Every structure is written in structure tokens, then in C-alpha cells.
Predict the structure.
Amino acid sequence: MLQDIRKNSQGTVAKLIVGLIVVVFALFGVESIVGGLSGEPEVATVNGKGITESKFARAVEGKRRQILAQMGERADPDLIDEGLLRSSVLEGMITEEILVQDAEEKGLFVADAAVDDYIRGVEQFKIDGVFSNERMQMVLRNAGLTLKAYRDSLKSQFVLNQTRSGLIASAFVLGDERDEVVALDRQQRSFGVATVFKRDYLDAVTVSDEEISVYYEKNKDSYQKPKSVDVSYIELNKSDLGKSLEVDEAEVQSLYDTERAEFVGEEERVAAHILIKIDENSTDEQALTKIKEIEVRIKSGEEFSVLAKELSEDEGSSQNGGDLGRSGKGVYVSDFEDALFALNVGQISAPVKTEFGYHLIKLAGIEANEFPAFDEMRAGLEERLRQEAIDQLYVEKSEMLADISYSSPDLAESSDELSLDIQQLAGVSLDTKNALFSNAKVRKVLFSDDLVVGQNNSELIEVGDGQSLVFRVDAYNEASVLPLVAVKGLVRNTLKGIKSSGFAESVGQEFIARVVAGEEPKEISDDMGLNWRQHKDIKRDNIMVNREVITRIFALEKTDVLTESIIGFDVLDGDYAIVRLDGVVSGDTENTTSLELHSISNMLGDGLGAADYRNYQSAMAESAEIERQ
């Protein structure tokens, strides 16, 4: 049977089939066969509609880049929890798909004109407060977006936001409800307060050796020395590589000559255009007919700028006679740029089609920049060459250090080959504040079996910009309880703090008892050496009084019996505060401006509307059929 298969596989038909498969694989990849049979893999489905694996992967990568950008220059990808990232992105995509389906079911949409109006209002697209098509193209291109992709994204966002906006805008509060909130929020309270500081009693308390011993035995876990390792390491620092690096004068001159040669012919072109859009209101044929009519009028002698003001559909430039300003290559879309740079000064192009529509392009002028003299550029060129040499040397030495240390049983060979010192550090733990060994990448492998048990060198770890190291574990130190003799002073201070806090509380409780018995707080305060202070008409947002005191005083019930409104509590790591509520004044809407009342109503309404929208989302999610793969 195998022989028959072999014979048949040599036939012309078999060869054609195999050839066809090879071509398909080469052009479209294996997914063209596998995907065609089973469809693209999905990570979840919402009411039967799938979220594809590729779309999910793009979203995860986009979110990862966003997080790294927020981290700043020293962003470390290893700090991102991959599981949490993927989970949050997936849930977000599921929520978005639910909203998209809801919007489609409701027939929601947004007009293209509204999207265009929004784009023209984006500040990043403006120059001196005026929308610039040139600026917009540059910003979008730098972000890796086409105008169509950007418009589609905005359109989707606006549609999805309609339900949310509608629910929030429809929520409201009644006047009585608002007034109740104003009365509570703008309430003022008058009170007295005194603080018993534990530091005042530190010298008054004593701690015996027996008490220290008993406390130590009960709290040994608090006095542990964490597990640690003794390490040897080699550090490679880019900043050390350039100290003796010299730059050849001939190289500086050569670089200058190269840049000068490349600069020759560099120019910026002053352009103007007339645009007729292709959109839902104008077909390709209609736009082409209209632009040709304009072209005929220009050829018959009418002024380009006048026609641009009258007929151009580029709102950003039409008011300026179609003027786009000056720019070099790389600013405009390719078809527009090719036509512009093919023109002579004063010449007007034939109709040019781009993704925006049809253009007539006029070259108003060419401006060339003069190249600076050698002496003006020498210092900058020298520094650039020096940095390039340092970067190259750092890369080479990094690769050498990684290769040698990987295959060596210790760091001696790496040290000899690269002329780098082997340094040592004892007792490195996860609490170590050393700049190198507190790095997250280093801590991740510090106690790994490969280093501790296998006694291998670590991989080359980049701990900063231009700073990396390789290390090995010389000894592993188990976590251990520190002996009493090593922590006796610390235990003594802890016990003194506890005792003095208790003393402060007992003084505070005595103060409260005397107030309840009918004595005046001020007299008690003077007698006990405390500082009783009265505060009148204090609001919730007061920042001059201790925040915890404000919180406690506004948590007290309104009462006319002052002695029932005096309390004591711990504050500031062991101090003891005593407060007595003396009076409460509710907020008054009559003393609140109509503008403030309107703002408060809107704020409360928005809060209720946001809650309504969250409930709406929850209801949609509960009713949706969601399957996570």
C-alpha cells in the first residue's frame, strides 16, 4: 500500500495540488488553510459574536504600551502583572462589545459632520488657534494612525457614549433633596479639643528587664532577620566607558561633510490647495467633475486664492485662500506630496486624488535652509560621535559579559576579559536598599534555585539606562530570629511607647470623667497641664484642624446635652485626643448663591445618572450570554 501511495504522489495532479498548497502558504500563511476550516480562534463570545484572539492580542499590547508610557523613562515590563493585564483587557472588551450590540439594537449613530467638527476643534491640530490640516496629519502619523482610522474610532466612541450621556443627563434631584444635602454638607460645628501627647510621659514610665524578656518571647516574629544571600557581582556602567574615549578629528569632519551633503537640496515648499471631498454627500465622480470645473476657471484667469476661499471644502485652509504653510517631505500623504514636489514655483497641479478627496495644488514658493558652519557644529558632532562610540562599546561589552559569565563557573574570567572589578555584598535581602539589588529584576531572581542551589551566575540584568550587572550567590542565609541582646534597646523603646500611650489615655479618661462630673474643660486643662482649645463654626473641609478630629466630631450625633458629646480616641501613633461637641449649625440654602445651588443640583444629578448607567450596564451584562474561552 505504501508503494501505491508513493506512485500516486508522483502524478501530475498530486504535484499540482502540492504546488497550490505551497503557493497559498507562501502568500497567506498556514492560517489561510487552518483558519478557513475552523475560523480564527476566539477568546470570548458575547451573545454569539466572537472576540478574536488577534484583536485581543492587539488590545493587550496597546494597554501594555500605555502602562509603560505612564511609568516613564525607567519603565520595567517585568513589573506588569500579565494575568491581571489580560484579564482587565478582556473584561473591557466584553463590556465594549455589549455596549456596541446595545447601540446597534437601538439604532444609534453619529453624523460624519459632527465627527469632523470635533476633529477641527482638537487643540493638538491647531496652530496659533487655527485648525491646520498639516498639523493634524503630522500628529496622526506620529501616533501611527490614518485619518480614516481616527475618524472611525471617534465615531465609535461617540455612539457608545450616547446611552451613558442620555442616562446621566436625564437624572435629576428635587429641590428638597438638594436642600437636605446642602444643609448636611455645609453644616458647621463648634467644639473644644485637647491632645494628651505620649511623649510627655516617656520619662515617667519604666521598663524592667523581665518585661522586655516577656515581650520579646511573645513577639519574636517581629524581630526576625530576613533570609538573605551574600553575593559577588560585576557592574557594567556606560558612564564609566567614556572617560578615556577620544574622538578622531577626521571622523568629526567626515560626519560634518556627510550631513552637509545630505542637507544640500533640502527644502521646504510653500503650498496651497483646493479640496473637494469624497463623502456621503459627494461621490467620486461628482467630486472629480467639480474639481475639473474649478481647474477650468483657474486656467481662464480666475485667482486661485479667491476660488479656494469660495469653493474649497478644507475648512482649515480655505479661509486663508487655501494656504497650507511651508513644509518639507514627510508631512503630507504620498500622492499629495509627490504632486507638490513635482511642481515648479507658481505652477498648479492637475486634479490629485487622496483619501480626503480631489485636490488642486499650487506651489507658491520654495525655501531652502542654509547649513551651519563647521565650527558651529563641531561640539555637537563630537558629542554625538562620542555617545555613539560609548553606546557601541557598551553593547559589545554587555554581550561579552553575558556570553562569558554564562559559560563560566564564576566571575573571574569575566573580570579579567573586561577589566571590571568583582565586588561583594553581604546580607542582601528583599529589604535591601542598595541601588543595584533593590531593582525589581534582580529581586525576582535573587533567591532562585538556579542561583542559590545551582550556584550559577545570573543572566545579564539591565538595572538602569546604561547600567547592568551579573551576580552570583556565594552563600545563602536562612531567616532567623534576632537574639534579645541585639534588639533589647528596640524592645525597650517599644514598651516605653506602649506604656506612655496607655498613660496618655488614662490622663484623657480622667479628663473626660471630670467634665462629665460637671467641671469646666478649661479649668481641668489648666490643672492637668493640657491645652484646651475652642473651635467655632468649623466646616467638614477644614484643613487647619487634625483630619481625624474633624472626622470624629462630625460623626457625633446632634445633642443639646454637651457632656454626652465628649469622647476620647487615639491619634497620631499613640497620642490621645479629647473632643467635646458644643454646637451644630446646619447649612442654609439662603446663604448659597443660585449658581452654587445649580452646580450642586447638577453634581448630584450626574452622580445619580452615573449610578443609573452602572446599573444599566450590570443589567445588560447579566442578560448577555458571555462565554470566556
